[in-house]
Amino acid sequence: MECSPNVLYQAWTKQFDSWFAAPGSVLMEAKVNTTFFFETHFEGKRHPHYGRFLRLEQNRLIELTWITGEGGTKGAETVLTVELKPRGNGTHLYLTHAGLPDENSRNQHEQAWPLVLEQLDKRMMPDR
């Protein structure tokens, strides 16, 4: 990622509607065991996302539960871990999404996350 660990940490904990969520849909406070909610809109449909923060380490780690409906986690509580490691002027971001309910859900998320992360990097860079 071209963004710094600080920019990415803020994006995952305070600026979700700048790069992922539908504007105005985010209810989120970056505190461990605090729940959050947001929506994405895709192909004319609303996709609500719920979860809670499990671990937060400033500019280093975000771990949260991730629950979506049909076409996502199918209501299963999954765990998303985002590790941020400085790399030159940017960041090496490691994303792990564990506990997906079936192979189809795993395949969909495996295809979607790289696109989501590309969007994150583009949206958070100040000169883009």
TrEMBL record:
Ranges where the Activator of Hsp90 ATPase homologue 1/2-like C-terminal domain occurs: 3-123
SUPFAM superfamilies assigned: Bet v1-like
Gene3D superfamilies found in the cross-reference section: 3.30.530.20
Stored CDD domains: SRPBCC_CalC_Aha1-like
One Pfam family matching this protein: AHSA1
InterPro entries to which the protein is assigned, alphabetical: ASHA1/2-like_C, START-like_dom_sf
Family: Belongs to the AHA1 family.
Name of the protein described by the UniProt record: Uncharacterized protein YndB with AHSA1/START domain
